[in-house]
Automatic annotation (TrEMBL):
It comes from Streptomyces blastmyceticus. Residues 93-306 form the LUD domain. Transmembrane segments: none annotated. This is LutB/LldF family L-lactate oxidation iron-sulfur protein. Keywords: 4Fe-4S, Electron transport, Iron, Iron-sulfur, Metal-binding, Repeat, Transport. Pfam families: Fer4_8 (PF13183), LUD_dom (PF02589), LutB_C (PF11870). Residues 335-404 form the 4Fe-4S ferredoxin-type domain. It comes from the Bacteria. Residues 431-503 form the Lactate utilization protein B C-terminal domain.
Length: 509
């Protein structure tokens, strides 16, 4: 959704093209390691700064037009929470509605099952090519790679996703996957790579947004007209009618949803809204929060199949993949409210400097920092590091159109990382052992709790610190070294507050 050439940085340069090899997200380094590399990339930071500041300014203007924005925000959160509380009921209702309308519903417990279902459905058509609508869910499960292993080529048709695919790259933003690329880089990708995927880029292609968009349009047109199978996600699913909704800004989604003979939609189970009346709230908040538009240029809705109009066969794959585990967490479940607007990314100071690839997930930024560890579980150093990829400034919560308290969930997940323990993920019991630094942190917190519970010990400790302040190091040793690498220890005052109070007020309590 959205035009990459309009929203990516307008700064073009002649520096050499750096195209990272496309790799699976799983197994990527922890956030601090990846961010240490990306923050040193001045071109990346310039691209991100320009794009995010532009989008956030436009969003602020669009939101300010609505006097009842706070009420819409509260309504969206309430609808999502009510739906999640009764998710079992609405999922059954959705399946019945889709089936009654001529569609077929498939249930996928995890990514492997979803990929198997989609692969088998495509093979049953006898086709070896599919066209795709931009979909976070299919990125989450690695569908393109699974189809490729089965000899099926998946062609991305969103402009930004096309840039990422041609560049053998990874998406770095929810709304604008190629936000880390500027116009000059996009031009070079089209010139060098487009011919290998179909119609080549025109001779003498410039970096003007209109020329880049036209090159993509001509390249994709033959794929739209040839493809017999389309694959999509969905922004929303209406339980009462079985209607699926995709919102986008380019029209490629409309082509993928209407021209192929077979349509396969892979959608997370949390994307349900109970009624059309509920949908009305999100069709106001989503476009303003994402593209800063009053409404999306293309809002496509379909209900099952219709003779003589659109796909002859429709399949809906409902994906769990950790969502049920997330729903069981009373604090963390609010992450399932997310409508993928990306507003939190565009105001986050950490994302702006580190970029999306550092998060090691299709879901970057603040929402990725709370969603990825819950969907995957705290199963590796990457997931354990993501709850710490935040300054807890709260800007993400302020702009979220469904009022997800991301800082609250981040602190909650940090507690889970430090405490460790045994968790059940998709039916498998897993023991999460805190890292050495977290065990040390836990020991220090327990010592602090004991000290605060014993006023006498606290008083003597404060006096000792004040009298030895000249001996205090500028950096902490051992496990505390990482903390003081990026922070300065405060100076210890010559007199504690307790002693000052006793001296000036004569109160020794």
């Amino acid at each position: 959704m959205g035009s990459a050439t309009d929203k990516a940085s307008d700064r073009a340069d002649d520096s050499p093209l750096n195209l990272p090899h496309r790799a699976a997200y799983l197994g990527m380094p922890a956030f601090p390691e990846a961010a240490a590399v990306s923050t040193r990339d001045s071109r990346l930071r310039s691209n991100l700064r320009h794009a995010t500041h532009t989008i956030r300014a436009k969003r602020a203007q669009a939101v300010a037009e609505l006097a009842d924005w706070d009420r819409l925000r509260g309504a969206g959160a309430a609808i999502k929470d009510r739906t999640l509380r009764h998710l079992d009921h609405y999922l059954v209702q959705l399946e019945e509605s889709v089936t009654r309308a001529g569609g077929t519903v498939h249930w996928a417990a995890d990514a492997a099952e979803a990929n198997r279902i989609v692969t088998e459905l495509v093979r049953a058509t006898g086709e070896t090519e599919v066209v795709k609508v931009k979909s976070m869910t299919t990125q989450e499960i690695g569908l393109n790679e699974a189809l490729e292993q089965a000899g099926i080529h998946a062609y991305e048709t969103d402009l930004a996703e096309l840039i990422v695919q041609l560049g053998d790259d990874l998406p770095s933003h929810i709304l604008v996957p190629a936000i880390h690329r500027n116009r000059g880089e996009i031009r070079d990708i089209f010139r060098d790579r487009m011919a290998g995927w179909g119609r080549p880029a025109p001779e003498g292609l410039s970096d003007r947004p209109a020329d880049l968009a036209e090159a993509a349009r001509v390249h994709l047109r033959e794929k739209f007209l040839r493809a017999k199978v389309g694959v999509s996600g969905a922004n929303f699913m209406v339980a009462e009618t079985g209607t699926l909704v995709v919102v986008e800004s380019e029209g490629n989604g409309r082509m993928c949803l209407t021209l192929p003979e077979t349509l396969i939609s892979v959608v997370g189970i949390e994307k349900i809204v109970p009624t059309w009346r509920d949908l009305e709230v999100f069709l106001q908040t989503l476009p303003r929060s994402s593209t800063a538009e009053r409404m999306n240029p293309y809002t496509s809705m379909w209900t099952g199949t219709t003779d003589g109009d659109g796909p002859r066969s429709f399949h809906l794959v409902l994906l769990d993949n950790g969502r049920t585990d997330t729903l069981a967490d009373q604090v963390g479940r609010q992450a399932l409210r997310c409508i993928r607007c990306s507003a939190c990314l565009n105001v986050c100071p950490v994302y702006e400097r580190a970029g999306g690839h550092a998060y090691g997930s299709p879901y970057p930024g603040p929402i990725g920092a709370i969603l990825t560890p819950q969907l995957r579980g705290l199963a590796s150093p990457l997931e354990e590091s993501l709850p710490y990829a935040s300054s807890l400034c709260g800007a993400c919560f302020e702009v979220c159109p469904v009022a997800i308290d991301i800082p609250e969930v981040l602190v909650h997940l940090r507690e889970r990382v430090v405490e460790g323990g045994t968790v059940t993920l998709r039916g498998t019991r897993t023991v999460i052992k805190p890292a050495r630094k977290h065990r040390a942190e836990r020991a220090m917190m327990r010592a602090a709790r004991w000290t605060f519970d014993h006023p006498g010990a606290l008083r003597h400790g404060q006096r000792l610190l004040s009298r030895t302040r000249g001996l205090h190091p500028g950096r902490l040793p051992g496990p505390g070294r990482a903390w003081t690498d990026t922070r300065e220890l405060p100076d210890v005052p010559a007199e504690s507050f307790r002693d000052w109070w006793a001296r000036t007020r004569g109160d020794t309590t």
